[in-house]
Amino acid sequence: MAQWHVYGSRTVYSSPWVELDLVDVEPPGQPRYQHHLIKMAPVAATVLLSDDREVLLMWRHRFATDTWNWEIPSGIVEAGEALPEAAAREVLEETGYRVDPGRLVPLAYNQPIGGMSNAEHTVFLARDAAFQADPVDTHEADRIEWTPLDRIQDMIDRREIVAGVAVTGLLQLLARPGAY
C-alpha cells in the first residue's frame, strides 16, 4: 500500500495543549478530501512498582467522560523538558513520591488514536519511589493507593482502569513477568 499524499494543512484552533488542523489529503486510489488532525502535547507517565509488587494508582474523576477510574501519574511534557524529567516531575506533583529520572526504565510508547491524532504517550517504570511530602497537585486525585500487581488485570477487565496511558503501561508490565 502506498503512502497518503498531503497537499497542505491549516490550523483551525491552537493552544499549548492541543491543536486542531484541517489537512488536505489524498489516500492511495481514493479521492482527495479534508481530514481533521488533532495534535496533542507529548505525555510522560510512570508506573511505580514497589519491592512488594504493588503499583501506585490514583483514583480520579475525568470530566470529559464523566467517569471515575484508577490512573498512573502522567502529564504534559513542558517545553525543553526531557521525557524522564517530565515523568519524574509529574510523579512528585501528583503523588508526593520522588523518583530518580536517571533510573526510569522505558516501558511503553504509543499513539492512542493514530488515524486522526498525533499524541505521543511515553510510559516509564520506576522502582525507587520515596515519599517526600503530600502532593502539590491536590486536584489530580481523590485518593492514592498502592495496589497489588496481581489485581491489575482484573481491574482493567472491570473497567476500573481505562485511561489509555495507564492501560498501556500496566499491560506492558504484566506482559513481562519477572523482567522488572
Task: Please describe what this structure looks like.
It is a single chain. The chain is α+β, with helices and mostly antiparallel strands. The protein has two domains: 5-39, no CATH class; 42-175, Nucleoside Triphosphate Pyrophosphohydrolase, CATH 3.90.79. It has three helices and 13 strands. It has helices spanning 83-95, 152-157, 164-175, and strands at 5-14, 18-26, 33-40, 43-48, 54-62, 67-71, 74-76, 97-98, 105-110, 117-118, 121-126, 130-131, 143-148. The strands form four sheets. The protein has a four-stranded mixed sheet, with no helix packed on it. Strands 7-4-11-9 form a four-stranded mixed sheet. A hairpin with a 6-residue loop joins strand 2 (18-26) and strand 3. The longest helix is centred in the middle third of the chain and has 13 residues, at 83-95. The protein is elongated. The termini are far apart. 27% of the residues are buried. The model has no long low-confidence stretch (mean pLDDT 94).
Secondary structure layout:
Blueprint: E1 5-14, E2 18-26, E3 33-40, E4 43-48, E5 54-62, E6 67-71, E7 74-76, H1 83-95, E8 97-98, E9 105-110, E10 117-118, E11 121-126, E12 130-131, E13 143-148, H2 152-157, H3 164-175
Parallel strand pairs: 3-10, 4-11
Antiparallel strand pairs: 1-2, 2-3, 4-7, 5-6, 5-13, 8-12, 9-11
Annotation field: number of helices: 3
What is the CATH-assigned architecture of the largest domain? Answer: Alpha-Beta Complex
CATH superfamily of the largest domain: Nucleoside Triphosphate Pyrophosphohydrolase
Query: Whole-number radius of gyration?
Result: 18 Å
Beta fraction: 35-45%
Number of domains: 2
Give a count of the beta strands, DSSP E runs of length 2 or more: 13
H/E series: EEEEEEEHEEEEEEHH
Alpha carbon gap, first and last residue = 38 Å
Adjacency order of strands in the biggest sheet: 1-2-3-10
Largest sheet: 4 strands, mixed
Helix content: 10-25%
Low-pLDDT ranges: none
Name the average pLDDT. Answer: 94
Which topology of the largest domain does CATH recognise? Nucleoside Triphosphate Pyrophosphohydrolase
Tell me the structural class: alpha+beta
Rough shape?
Answer: elongated
CATH class descriptor of the largest domain: Alpha Beta
